[in-house]
Amino acid sequence: MDGKCLSKAGREVMIKSVLQAIPSYVMGIFQLPITLLDSIEKVMNSFWWGHGKIVQRGIHWLNREKLSAPRIHGGMGFKDLSAFNLTMLGKQG
């Protein structure tokens, strides 16, 4: 799905319920490499901004830190995957 037929609210739900939930199980067991987490976040950002593909260049009006900030602080509430990975590993200890 390229996301062109979804509204911003639909894209947000898709990112939070699918794209961020898929690596959750693996993050609880292994520490994923930063390069992999960065590429997943790039896919999420490009899907959010409506490009659908990584190769297309476009304007991203907010940086990654702002998108991952809580809604109360003006962000979108997307997960910071590297911090989430460390949190999931911390549950094992």
Descriptive tags:
93 residues, globular, mainly alpha
How is the secondary structure organized here?
Layout: H1 8-19, H2 24-27, H3 34-48, H4 64-67, H5 81-90
Helix pairs in contact: 1-3
Plain-language structure description:
By secondary structure, this protein is mainly α. The protein has one domain (8-90). 48% of the residues lie in helices and 0% in strands. It is built from 5 helices and no strands. The longest helix is centred in the middle third of the chain and has 15 residues, at 34-48. The chain is globular, with a radius of gyration of 14 Å.
Quaternary status = single chain
Number of domains: 1
Give the biggest sheet. Answer: none
Distance between the termini: 38 Å
User: What is the tally of helical segments?
Assistant: 5
Q: In terms of structural class, how would the helical and strand content be classed?
A: mainly alpha
Gross geometry: globular
Poorly predicted ranges (pLDDT <50, ≥5 residues)?
none
Q: Give the averaged pLDDT, no decimals.
A: 78
Strand segment count: 0
What is the alpha-carbon Rg in Å?
A: 14 Å
Level of helix content?
Answer: 40-55%
Q: Proportion of β residues?
A: under 5%
Order of helices and strands: HHHHH
